[in-house]
Amino acid sequence: MISQKIDPFLLKNLQYFKQVRLFYDLNNEQIKTVLSEMKVERFPPDTYIMKEGSVGDKMFILIKGAVEISKSLILPEWLPVLNKQEKSLLHFSEKDFPFFGEMVMLRDNLIRSASIITRTESILASIGKKEFDFIVQRDHTLGMKLFKNMAGELADRLRKTNKDILKLTTALSIALEGK
């Protein structure tokens, strides 16, 4: 049972949401249940959606536009000394069907691990932790599927991160051997 009316823009994009990995193996009614708790947010270009190090309470799905994910490559305590900027890591558009910020759904008061900035005018669907928890508590089967899909995405990201770390440690080992 859907608790509130679905934003018409979200409903119009139902086919799009079916391709977002968060919604894999969900039927139309289950997707609509989640959409009923989501809000549409519009951002102009070059606007931060989230900042690394801030406390977050929302997850986002990019529907239209392009975003860049960046991360500081320096430990926070070294930032004032080294005066380094963030490093752009990934670029996504709606063609990638991305969702991000999902880690805040797993724990209260979680600190954002990266920054996300719009590169074009962008439209995103957002859901707060409170609304997400409401869905999970109300429909355990739907909640299990959502958590499974988030875990799959996080596992893939962790695998990529492990591979990147291996590349960096290999390069560092080669560089140190050359000295």
In brief:
The chain is of the alpha+beta class. The chain has helices spanning 8-12, 14-17, 28-35, 79-82, 129-138, 140-177; strands at residues 39-43, 48-50, 58-64, 66-72, 86-93, 99-100, 115-118, 122-128.
- Determine the N-to-C terminus distance: 66 Å
**Number of E-type strands:** 8
Radius of gyration: 18 Å
**Fraction of residues in H or I helices:** 25-40%
Order of helices and strands: HHHEEEEHEEEEHH
Task: Look at the structure and give the mean pLDDT.
Answer: 88
Could you give the topology of this structure?
Elements: H1 8-12, H2 14-17, H3 28-35, E1 39-43, E2 48-50, E3 58-64, E4 66-72, H4 79-82, E5 86-93, E6 99-100, E7 115-118, E8 122-128, H5 129-138, H6 140-177
Antiparallel strand pairs: 1-8, 2-7, 3-6, 3-8, 4-5, 4-7
Structural description of this entry:
The protein has helices at 8-12, 14-17, 28-35, 79-82, 129-138, 140-177, and strands at 39-43, 48-50, 58-64, 66-72, 86-93, 99-100, 115-118, 122-128. The strands form 2 sheets. The protein has a 4-stranded antiparallel beta sheet. The longest helix is centred in the last third of the chain and has 38 residues, at 140-177. It contains 6 helices and 8 strands; from the N terminus they run H-H-H-E-E-E-E-H-E-E-E-E-H-H. The mean pLDDT is 88. Helix 5 crosses helix 6. The protein has 179 residues and is α+β, with helices and mostly antiparallel strands. It is 39% helix and 24% strand.
